[in-house]
Amino acid sequence: MTLELRGVSRIVEGQLHVHPTDLVLEKGTMNVLLGPTLSGKTSLMRLMAGLDVPSVGQVIWQGKDVTGMRVQDRGVAMVYQQFINYPSMTVYDNIASPMRLLGLSKPEIDRRVRETAELMKLDGMLERRPLELSGGQQQRCALARALVKDAGLVLLDEPLANLDYKLREELRVEIPKIFEAAGSIFVYATTEPEEALLLGGNVATLWEGRVTQFGPTPRVYRCPADATTARVFSDPPMNFLAVAKTGASLAFGEGQQLPAPEALAELPDGRYMAGFRANHLEIRQHRPEALRFTAGLAVTELTGSETFVHLDHHGDRWVGLIHGVHDLEMARASMSGSTRAMSTSSARTGRWWRRPPTRRPPEEDRTMARITLDNLAHSYQSNPQTEDDYALKELNHVWEDGAAYALLGSSGCGKSTLLNIISGLLQPSQGRILFDDRDVTHAATAERNIAQVFQFPVVYDTMTVHDNLAFPLRNRGRDEAYVAERVGEIARMIGMEHMLKRKARGLTADAKQKISLGRGMVRKDVNALLFDEPLTVIDPHMKWELRTQLKKLHHEFGHTMIYVTHDQTEALTFADKVVVMYDGRVVQIGTPEELFERPEHTFVGYFIGSPGMNLLPAEVEGNVAHVHGAAVPLGRGYGPLSGKVELGIRPEFARLSRDEGLPVQIRRVEDVGRHKIIRTELFGQEFNVIAGEDETVGADMARVAFDPAHVNVYADGWRVAGAA
Amino acid sequence: MNKTLNNKAWFLVLPVLVLVAFSAVIPLMTVVNYSVQDTFGNNQFFWAGLEWFEEMLHEDRMWNALRRQLIFSAVILAIEVPLGVFVALNMPKSGAWSSFCLVTMSLPLLIPWNVVGTIWQIFGRVDIGLLGHTLAAMGIDYNYTQDTIAAWVTIIVMDVWHWTSLVALLAFAGLKSIPDAYYQAARIDQASRWKVFRYIELPKMAGVLMIAILLRFMDSFMIYTEPFVVTGGGPGNATTLLSIDLVKMALGQFDLGPAAAFSLMYFLVILAISWVFYTVMTNLDKKGM
Amino acid sequence: MAWMAWTWPTAIFFLVIAGLLAVFTVLAIKFPETPRVGILRTETTRGDRLFITLLGSAFINLAWLGLIGPETQPWALAVCLVYAAAVFRWV
């Protein structure tokens, strides 16, 4: 069972949608098509399925030419980004429907439906209708329908794109297992490099309708054939550096010279473009052969366990991902590339601040506000009875002026409700909201002087970029000279001064999103900038650029910013304080570091971190915990605890060992590029461990040890502080 | 792949081709033939060349009908489009009221043309019609069989009554497709109601409004039944629109030659409008509006 | 067929149109083309251009007849040819 594309290409109305492509997909493989939006992933899939006929070339299925055969006769199954199920049928009937069309016998259908439902964890809800299910379950139902057919070719077109971050993570772990059980050819389109790495198998990178490389996923990731592939297959973006090699020396930038590393000895002399990944850049000389660079620091982002540094190296923009949380003041940075391609490193004698001091505009222009949520709660029902009726449960918080907050939670947790109350689009059922000392609970949106950026870019299509930016000022009757001056400033800030004269229609999603941001910032009197999942429709590598820009703007102008998202990376890198919400309640407010190291609730531990925190039922006595009889040392001492006692250990703080710690069995090792996720079983329970990219996992590593300082103790889900 | 396999498909199109040939191509050819000949019945024809065309082009009759036609189409468009948009803007966006409005508004669209004509013909009569009688009782001199203005007002109001809902429904569909975020952003930007309409609603409705305008223009340009039933083209020739005039000429006076020339020119104009319509529609499609 | 009142000039007229359609059909099959965007800023194929030519020619002839008169009608055809060339070149 193989699918072969021979010189297949597709031309639509004179435009080349798919360049001539040769591809052989073998039986029982997972094949990921990775590329940004409009790179030809869906076009290629449609050709494979027979939904489109190639302009040139042949599609061969099991040795037979099936070019032009109707999709109905091809035995393919497809899963889409939208959750496509028959709304009037039960889950059972939905799953059974493809087999009924094939005319299978009743008992056979029943057996297979139940089997597939169990595999997809839908067995409890066979009698329900798809629309009564959550998004994740709806997509499971669609997946089950695709799998049950036993189709030789299963095509998945960004099936997880419409799901929350955490649901995505869950299904990503399951999909490879499901696919191993099925044995068909799977083709999976995605825009996210991380997803491709988690899925494993093979990957084909696409760029502008062309397959740039096809091969086993880790190999394509580690040895990209060209710079385009490297760029497509990297998140954070690949760093590039132009170098010239002469003999044993490398020249780059403005005349800097370094001895060439040994790994490059074989390379003939000439000009090259060197590429290295963010996680191969360190701020200290970590290896003797590492190269040193001097770079300027633009922005740092902290995720709680890692630090992203955005650097400017003689005009090249670089991103570094450094383990741990780093105070970059006076740091000596050395970047070091992987040992394979080349090594890079940087040093800097200047001053690097962890947070550049916020430069605030003169007082008279500033009206940014402290936001006080006083006794606030909201219910969408007119007459709420119990606590469950409230979409947002009672809240009392003071949010500081000029800080960046992120509201993080899965869909339906109340984060959008809270945002809408702050922006005035929604009147709370109870409580007050204050900007500084002014009660604005019943003030109209326009009176609150806030700006908001929405999930889907809102621009006025028929206006030029300039008029879009000028719109809020003109509506407030400001004179044209002032408007022109402000628009010019803002356009410079968001980097759009060269396209002011263009119509907003037809711009890319990220450009439109920048305009909405600019429109928010153009007024000097904004109290707060609100963001409602602003990066949803943006491609991964553009996400980095936009996020950095936001971060920079925040540092420069010090607006109070509130950012709603379900994506932990966005929340952690953006915010000074992250507000984790669950089921209408604020579970924890804290810095990314606090959330990572000391989650107050097991939900926070699960929700933040990827994979989330491991939980182990235990008995705790003083500074020792007993897990199934085995002793685990703790960093602090605890008094007697009541309720359900658990240990919370992040995968990052667990390591495999030969002779130390608790006994485990390794189930699988996932290479996600910059690190490995090791899925193990500990006393019959799933337990994840994260190991470095270069660490080897030996078969004899049958124990897992924890860092005592980072073992948290929970009673009934809430963290117990303990005494040092 | 073997291409000849697909040639079978042609046989499936054959019945349609035959139908079109009999219903459209043959009559069209006949009309062309008639337009260059003169006849006095008995299937006797005499070559006339371009004489009929020349006559029609130089006589006022066709130009007057065309002028009345253009005025009629322009007036109903000028009323129906803004009115339809206004109605759509003021319709409830969701809920039971919304469905109720939609159903009520589609009712006139379901009534056959000649019934619409009859309804208004009776409605406007001074002796028994509700409208005519009321107006007369109020002392307004209204009689659509005698007075040109009254006749025009009647057929225009009738068309507005019949077709404004179509424009409104199309505009409503366009409005419904605007995400809430746009209105929220406009509130934050302190945009006035007019600016919301001008920069958010109108651009989003532009596509469907274009369709509505073209549909209504085409339809009104070929209108026959309703005004014919109400006024019969009168008083005098005051409401004799193109198609009414054509029927009068061909059937009333049995001037087959001039009528054929007239109808060919009418046909060419409609063909040209249809082409514009088609081009605009396909272009809108491509722009994804 | 008598009721259709055929004459030689109209028969020739329809034969020419039918011939043109046939030629363009054969051309479209033998030499498939990609539509192009001309001065109307909309995509046109050869078939579209033929249609525009024929329709435009009808109006040119009518205008000539109404404004100048039937005596010089053949000259209208010359204008049509120029128009056709222009349409095929630029539309």
Can you give me a brief rundown of this structure?
The complex is a heterotrimer of chains A (724), B (289) and C (91). With 289 residues, chain B is an all-alpha fold.
Report on this model:
The complex is a heterotrimer of chains A (724), B (289) and C (91). Chain A has 724 residues and is α+β, with helices and mostly antiparallel strands. Chain A has four domains: 230 residues, P-loop containing nucleotide triphosphate hydrolases (Rossmann fold); 123 residues, no CATH class; 230 residues, P-loop containing nucleotide triphosphate hydrolases (Rossmann fold); 110 residues, no CATH class. Chain A is built from 16 helices and 39 strands. In chain A, strands 6-7-8-3-9-10 form a six-stranded mixed beta sheet, sandwiched between helices. A six-stranded mixed beta sheet of chain A has the order 23-24-25-20-26-27, sandwiched between helices. In chain A, helix 3 crosses helix 4. Chain B has a single domain, classed as Orthogonal Bundle (MetI-like fold). Chain B has twelve helices and two strands. Chain B has a two-stranded antiparallel ribbon with strand order 1-2. In chain B, helix 3 crosses helix 7, helix 7 runs antiparallel to helix 10 and helix 11 packs antiparallel against helix 12. Chain B is globular and about 75 Å long. Chain C is mainly alpha-helical and 91 residues long. Chain C has two domains: 32 residues; 57 residues, no CATH class. A two-stranded antiparallel ribbon of chain C has the order 1-2. In chain C, helix 2 runs antiparallel to helix 3. The longest helix of chain C has 23 residues. Chains in contact: A-B, B-C.
Assigned CATH architecture of the largest domain in chain A: 3-Layer(aba) Sandwich
Per CATH, the architecture of chain B is: Orthogonal Bundle
- The level 1 CATH classification of the largest domain in chain A is Alpha Beta
Q: Please count the beta strands of chain B (DSSP E, at least 2 residues each).
A: 2
CATH superfamily membership of chain B? MetI-like
Q: Considering residues with a beta carbon less than 8 A from a beta carbon on another chain, report the largest interface and each chain's count.
A: B-C, 28 and 24 residues
Counted up, domains of chain A total 4
Average pLDDT level of chain B: 84
Which parts of chain B are unreliable, with pLDDT below 50 for 5 consecutive residues or more?
1-5
